[in-house]
Amino acid sequence: MAIKQVYELTQEGVDTIKEELNELKHVRRLENLEAIKEARAQGDLSENADYDAARNEQARIESRISEIETVLKNVKIIKTSADDVVNIGKQVSLLFLEKNETRIYKLVGTIEANPRDGKISITSPIGRALRGHQKDDIVSVKSETGRLFQIKILDINNGDLQKM
What we know:
- By secondary structure, the protein is an alpha/beta fold.
- It has 2 domains: 71 residues, Helix Hairpins (Orthogonal Bundle); 73 residues, Roll (Chitinase A, domain 3).
- The chain contains 3 helices and 7 strands.
């Protein structure tokens, strides 16, 4: 029996991929079908670069639709708890002790992670190290390259990245 993949997401993450799915199905797919139609009208398909590009884009769109639908069928929505413990859905303010640098991150599921937007995966080295800790704890983190560094948890909340 195959093991079913479960995707842990926050409600915000589910809403985001539902929006993407809607965009793919109702906008991008239709635009792509129009591009294929226009490319076909150009004549010989064997040497038609526009047709090839449109067909490749169609494959990417359909693949992403399938991927999102699979995630949504197997999603486990993680609710943020009200306690002051680091977990998925929480926003944390961290002090990287070695660099004396403060950063704010929201801990999210793997699919939602985007460090440029301040969202890191709960399964990342930092996320795993922080999980279950509280404000003022100093946590040792081992990076994927094996480097060890320490982080102090300055604050934990359930809010938006902008509100801390």
